[in-house]
Amino acid sequence: MADFDHLSGLVLGLYNYWIVIALMMTGLYIVMACGNLVKKIVGLNVFQTSVFLFYISMGKVEGGTAPILTGDPAEVFSNPLPHVLILTAIVVGVAGTALGLALAVRIRESYGTIEEDEINEADISDARLGKGSRA
């Protein structure tokens, strides 16, 4: 019974890492299984969010405070660097999402669809007819 309590405490104590794994696998599945380009972008955003949550979880220090020196040598500080890097990554992620959605709009204008298999079929038929690429 003690082993079960230890195991359940370990599993429940690390719930944020289980959430990271679930989000990561969900995002990866969406990217791999969906042919719609917008859904792929959403899947990348879910995957990216799981990475953000992972880094924030790793940067958490139990009992840590803001790194302001007070003279107490026993005081535990939290490292602010992971949080700052994640803020930067969020901005880059939003820019990447905007770029991906803009490309999806251009692809829709050019091909009339955002389904990956239909775009591939159109490219193959254009190559057979010698039309070249769409601009």
From TrEMBL:
Protein known as: Cation:proton antiporter subunit C
Family the entry assigns: Belongs to the CPA3 antiporters (TC 2.A.63) subunit C family.
Keyword Acyltransferase: no
Organism: Futiania mangrovi
Keyword presence, Iron: no
Pfam families, per the entry: Oxidored_q2 (PF00420)
InterPro entries, per database record: CPA3_antiporter_subunitC, NUOK/Mnh_C1-like
First and last residue of the signal peptide: none
